[in-house]
């Protein structure tokens, strides 16, 4: 099995056997975790509003799913998209009942 590792010194990936790939590392893999700033920009909300949503402090919204690594919180794009679809579905159901 072959794997690639990004070396920060030059931005290129090195395969498991030590060979350097010629393509930039950004093209070899997608970034899987977003910071709070990136996630709030993705959702189009202010960061304080986003942090309140993560903490579950906005009535009617489920908490935004996150991954904690130490004291930091990271957000998977796939999870944000699922969360957004769930919120949209709840909103549509509430409007159809009224």
Question: How is this structure best described in words?
Answer:
This protein has two domains: 1-29, no CATH class; 33-97. It is α+β, with helices and mostly antiparallel strands and 98 residues long. Residues 1-14 have low confidence and may be disordered. The chain is globular and about 45 Å long. Helix 2 crosses helix 3 (47-54). Strand 1 and strand 2 form a beta hairpin. It has helices spanning 25-28, 36-43, 47-54, 77-97; strands at 4-6, 12-15, 20-24, 33-34, 67-69, 72-76. Strands 1-2-3 form a three-stranded antiparallel β-sheet. The chain has four helices and six strands; from the N terminus they run E-E-E-H-E-H-H-E-E-H.
Which labels suit this protein?
globular; 3-stranded antiparallel β-sheet; single chain; disordered N terminus; alpha+beta; 98 residues; 4 helices
Concise summary:
42% of the residues lie in helices and 22% in strands. It contains four helices and six strands; from the N terminus they run βββαβααββα.
């Amino acid at each position: 099995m072959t794997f690639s590792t990004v070396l920060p010194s030059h931005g290129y990936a090195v395969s498991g056997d030590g060979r350097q790939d010629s393509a930039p590392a950004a093209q070899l893999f997608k970034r899987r975790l977003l910071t709070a700033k990136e996630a709030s920009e993705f959702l189009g909300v202010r960061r304080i509003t986003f942090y309140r949503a993560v903490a579950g402090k906005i009535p009617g919204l489920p908490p935004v799913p996150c991954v904690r690594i130490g004291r930091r919180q990271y957000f998977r794009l796939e999870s944000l998209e699922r969360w957004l679809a769930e919120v949209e579905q709840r909103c549509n159901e509430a409007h159809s009942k009224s």
